[in-house]
Amino acid sequence: MAAAAPSNSASGRDGSGSERQTVRASIRGVVQGVFYRAWTKETADSLGLDGWVRNLPDGSVEAVFSGPSSSVDQMLTLSKRGPKSARVEQVDVEPYKDDVGKGFEVKRGKY
């Protein structure tokens, strides 16, 4: 799937009246062991996003971002670079329909 963000993949508006979207991103490249998850949480928190991030066994990182469309789009753009030590090669994005709850978390353990 293309790296471009889909528009309004989740229905609804946030408290400010802005359209919300929720997407799942698959981030590939050198993205494990380089603080990518910690960077993602810090960045998502700064943008006021809900969701989560986790490492996958294939060496990629999976993340779900939910919030105002403009903030989700900004997070996706930033995810293409990641922290300084990461080398992102590809970011695939698709709509995500499940509830992500409130806040942003780093998931650990079972995939």
From TrEMBL:
Alphabetic keyword roster: Hydrolase
UniProt region (Disordered), positions on chain: 1-24
Pfam families (alphabetical): Acylphosphatase
EC number of the protein: 3.6.1.7
Top-level EC class as recorded in UniProt: hydrolase
Reaction(s) the record says it catalyses: an acyl phosphate + H2O = a carboxylate + phosphate + H(+)
Gene3D superfamilies in alphabetical order: 3.30.70.100
Positions of the catalytic residues: R37, N55
Residue ranges constituting the Acylphosphatase-like domain according to the UniProt record: 22-108
Sequence ranges of Polar residues compositional bias: 1-11
SUPFAM superfamilies: Acylphosphatase/BLUF domain-like
GO molecular function, one term: acylphosphatase activity
Superkingdom in the source lineage: Eukaryota
Family membership: Belongs to the acylphosphatase family.
Protein name per the record: acylphosphatase
Organism: Klebsormidium nitens
